[in-house]
Design brief:
heterodimer; A: 287 residues; alpha/beta; Rossmann fold; eight-stranded mixed beta sheet; 8 strands; B: 588 residues; Pyruvate-ferredoxin Oxidoreductase, domain 3; 4 domains; 18 helices; globular; 2-oxoacid/accept_OxRdtase_asu (chain B); EC 1.2.7.3 (chain B); 2-oxoglutarate synthase activity (chain B); Pyrv/ketoisovalerate_OxRed_cat (chain B); 2-oxoglutarate synthase subunit KorA (chain B)
């Protein structure tokens, strides 16, 4: 791994087509900087992207990558990491990808605690399809498909993660570049599933959850006496519906990642050009 | 047909039917006899009716037949369910002291052997061994030395302690002795001779699992579903010994995407499922193909549509595998025709997937998957396994496949359509794979010219595969016969045995058994040369027959079975004969 990797090495030659001012620019910059800062380079990094505005990140970043089926980014990342424990795996997607069509996978990826990071670009809206309610939209948020609001409570992704046994839960804000990058870095360095929900405002379709709103309401846990290793502290923060927080909400100090639990350590891309040694034992079992 | 012996044990789910049958099958196999097994089972944990059937001969057996010689019946229903197969000389072993069997009627001329299974088992050490007592009784009827059962009992119970093995061996002897003492005056016509041959006994799911490991598959993700689960349970605990891993995913959407991820990581990866799970995996199928990811998806077919008959035979998913998914998706569909071919075609599926960077459906039908069959061990000669990973470039050659600005080209436009592949970690190889239409570097494009070039490139891979690979069918019978029978999947064994029966009636048949559904062999000449062509398959609409008609531009006759039960050799012979006679009446 070269030590002179710059974050721009993670940039592809495709110019992003996100709307000017979109939170995803800042989110992506933080991801690239965090990857470079943790000693990774594009050739040993695998980024999995979902579908939606956030899914375009696979095109704008430069690394090994897969831009897949809507909602299935986490299983893809899981497969990559199991086959290649030596590769840094980062999965990204939007709130629709992760908490709606892919919600089932989210819960189980959290449970598995595979050693990878998961960055959700949460703008509380479906942007690419031009403004419908997302699973994190407020219950009175009026959109073309919910003219009177969804009238259902938004998904609380941190609570979902905590309930599923998460070992790392964090929240960042795309506009707070330094803190965002630090938090992503911590997720990468975490021994297990590093989950970061990123407030990444949609400037075109969401006039409620705006930059101003987050700037005014966010409390940085780093400025409080919050203990990230204290489960009850984490629970209180996560269930507090009156405030928005950023920072690492919870981290299990004793996290044992999947590959250690299951002793999955080999680079599976390397195989012999015939049957593996000892394969005849398999035939003998059938005597 | 060889002098064969047909045996079954039947009762309720939860009665230990499966393990009892397996012990008998193993005893036969270990004493140098060929074995072919089949199962009647239901989708329930307890109750209902379930049976394990064994056909055995010193010669190769590869089908079930419509005949049952000895039946161990734990329930009255076991007898009712098998009335069609039982005959006047059949022997039924039952426990008349069991409340439900007390007043059981032995039909017609059949011989009923009332053996106090439970009581004798208790005397030997525990009621749980009553089925083993029945096995001992069956040995007496079949004139099969009880010592042959010993090693199978050893294999089954050996890891649970000496005492248990000995108790079981004693229980078996108690059953044998009871028949000798109480029914010594009866003469049974059976004598199961043993040979010095060594055989292995395995089913199609196990053969697929073993083939996967042999081929270098290191990653398997799946979600349990009948009748594909056995592939997963086989791999679990075994693939790890070769550096691999099995994940039980949360659903089939996840399973196929995990396998896709592992394949992008450079591993040989597989998933297996059955119809309902294949439906879910179809979501990702187009991505696998468009991103040019090598992946083997195993479909162990069961009766559909919807939940259908989950434990019953059908070959109903052919159209789904050929056409499933939106857009036009290139793919290979391979359907092994025997248990041993399940092994070899799995190896081939992995090579095809990687050489052509294409998804491969590997399909076995339920009958093939659950059938245990004997083979000589060298049938699975591991030294003959070849692994061809296709066009993989490393750091020494990667520069030949980069653009001037340095971007690697995973979808490079080549003459044969096959582009270079790199695994993560290869310096200079970073690239994105996507379900979007893309340029040579894998970057999204909607450029009309590039769209055409990439579509043509992907289709050209299939043309290349058609040219380079051997897609020949398997042939049996009389190559010059005027009657042609075509089949795919597991029907082969029944047809091959039916050939002998038909020949005895003076009917010569040429059989073409097709393991390659797509690409498939061109049968135009064969159909043209035949007077009568019949396509045999286990579905109602003749999905394979339709393909053949499409290929050869000629109508064919069909024999379709969709009652959930596989073809039996003797029954199929009768049907083929009837179809040919009808054909002759219709076209004199």
């Amino acid at each position: 791994m070269s030590s002179d990797v710059r974050f721009t090495d993670f940039k592809s030659d495709k110019q992003p087509t996100w709307c000017p001012g979109c939170g995803d620019f800042g989110t992506m910059n933080g991801m690239m900087k965090a990857l470079a800062e943790t000693g990774n380079d594009p050739d040993n990094t695998f980024v999995v992207a979902g579908i939606g505005c956030s899914g375009k990140i696979g095109t704008y970043m430069h690394s090994y990558a897969l831009h897949g089926v809507h909602g299935r980014a986490l299983p893809v990342g899981t497969g990559v990491k199991m086959a290649r424990p030596d590769i840094e795996v980062m999965v990204s997607g939007g709130d629709g990808d992760g908490y709606s069509i892919g919600a089932g996978h989210f819960v189980h990826a959290v449970r598995r605690n595979v050693d990878m990071s998961y960055v959700v670009m949460d703008n509380r809206i479906y942007g690419l399809t031009k403004g419908q309610a997302s699973p994190t939209s407020r219950d009175d948020f009026e959109t073309s498909t919910t003219p009177e609001g969804p009238k259902q409570p938004p998904v609380n992704p941190h609570a979902l993660a905590l309930a599923a046994g998460a070992t790392f839960i964090a929240q960042s804000f795309s506009s707070d570049a330094l803190r965002h990058q630090e938090i992503i870095q911590e997720a990468i360095e975490h021994d297990g599933f590093g989950f970061v929900n990123v407030y990444s405002p949609c400037v075109t379709f969401n006039d409620v959850d705006t930059y101003d709103y987050f700037r005014d309401s966010l409390v940085d846990l780093a400025d409080t006496d919050h203990d990230r290793h204290d489960y009850d502290d984490a629970k209180d923060v996560i269930l507090d519906s009156d405030k928005e927080y950023q920072g690492v909400i919870y981290q299990d100090e004793n996290s044992v990642p999947y590959h250690e639990q299951h002793d999955v350590t080999e680079d599976m891309s390397v195989i012999p050009d015939g049957a593996p040694e000892g394969a005849t034992d398999l035939v003998r079992e059938f005597y | 047909m060889a002098a064969d012996f047909n045996w079954a044990v039947g009762g309720e789910a939860g009665d230990g039917i499966d393990s009892t049958g397996k012990i008998f099958a193993q005893a036969l196999s270990r004493s140098g006899r060929h074995v072919f097994t089949s199962k009647d089972f239901a989708s329930r944990i307890r109750g209902g009716y379930t049976a394990y059937k064994v056909r055995t001969s010193v010669d190769k057996v590869q089908s079930v037949v419509d005949r049952l010689d000895v039946l161990i019946a734990l329930t009255p229903r076991t007898i009712e369910e098998n009335l069609d197969e039982l005959h006047d000389d059949s022997v039924i072993i039952y426990d008349g002291e069991r409340t439900t069997m007390r007043n059981v009627e032995i039909p017609g001329e059949m011989v009923g052997l009332d053996v106090p299974l439970k009581r004798l088992a208790e005397e030997a050490g525990g009621a749980i061994m009553r089925n083993v007592v029945a096995l001992g009784a069956a040995c007496a009827v079949a004139d099969f030395p009880i010592e042959n059962l010993d090693s199978a009992l050893e294999k089954r119970f050996g890891d649970k302690g000496r005492k248990l093995v000995e108790n079981n061996q004693e229980a078996a002897r108690a059953g044998r002795d009871h028949v000798a003492e109480e029914y010594g005056d009866l003469e049974f016509d059976y004598s199961l001779e043993t040979t010095d041959e060594d055989y292995v006994l395995l089913n199609g799911d196990e053969a697929i699992g073993m083939g996967a490991i042999a081929a270098g598959c290191r990653f398997y993700a799946g979600y349990p579903i009948t009748p594909a689960t056995d592939v997963m349970t086989y791999l679990t605990g075994r693939i790890e010994r070769y550096g691999g891993h099995v994940v039980q995913a949360e659903d089939e959407l996840s399973a196929v995407n995990m396998a896709l991820g592992a394949a992008r990581g450079g591993a040989r990866a597989m998933t297996a499922s059955s119809g309902p799970g294949i439906d879910l995996m179809t979501e990702t199928f187009g991505l696998v193909a468009t991103s040019e990811t090598p992946l083997v998806i195993c479909n162990v077919m069961r009766s559909g549509p919807s939940t259908g008959m989950p434990t019953k035979q059908e070959q109903g998913d052919l159209n789904q595998m050929l056409f499933g998914g939106h857009g036009e998706i290139h793919r290979f569909v391979i359907a092994p025709t025997t248990v041993s071919e399940c092994f070899w075609k799995t190896v081939e599926a992995f090579n095809l997937a990687e050489k052509y960077q294409t998804p491969v459906y590997l399909t076995a039908d339920l009958s093939l998957a659950v059938t245990e069959e004997t083979f000589t061990p060298d049938t699975f000669d591991m030294d003959a396994v070849e692994v061809d990973r296709g066009f993989v470039v490393d750091e020494s050659t990667i520069d030949e496949h980069r653009t001037e600005s340095g971007g690697f080209m995973p979808h490079e436009l080549t003459e044969d359509g096959i582009s270079p592949r790199t695994f993560p970690g290869t310096a200079g190889g970073a690239h994105m794979s996507t379900g979007l239409e893309h340029d040579e570097r894998g970057r999204r494009t909607e450029d009309t010219e590039m769209r055409i070039k990439q579509v043509d490139k992907r289709n050209r891979k299939v043309e290349t595969a058609i040219e380079r690979e051997d897609w020949s069918p398997r042939e049996f019978g009389d190559a010059d016969a005027e009657n042609l029978v075509i089949s795919w999947g597991s029907n082969e064994g029944a047809i091959v045995e039916a050939l002998e029966l038909l020949a005895a009636d003076g009917i010569d048949v040429r059989v073409i058994s097709v393991p390659y559904v797509f690409p498939r062999p061109d049968l135009t000449d064969a159909v043209a040369a035949a007077e009568n062509t019949i396509v045999v398959e286990c579905n109602a609409t003749g999905q394979f027959a339709n393909l053949i008609e499409h290929d050869v531009l000629e109508r064919v006759d069909r024999i379709n079975k969709y009652d959930g039960v596989r073809f039996k050799a003797d029954e199929l012979a009768r049907e083929i004969e009837a179809a040919l006679t009808e054909g002759m009446e219709a076209h004199p």
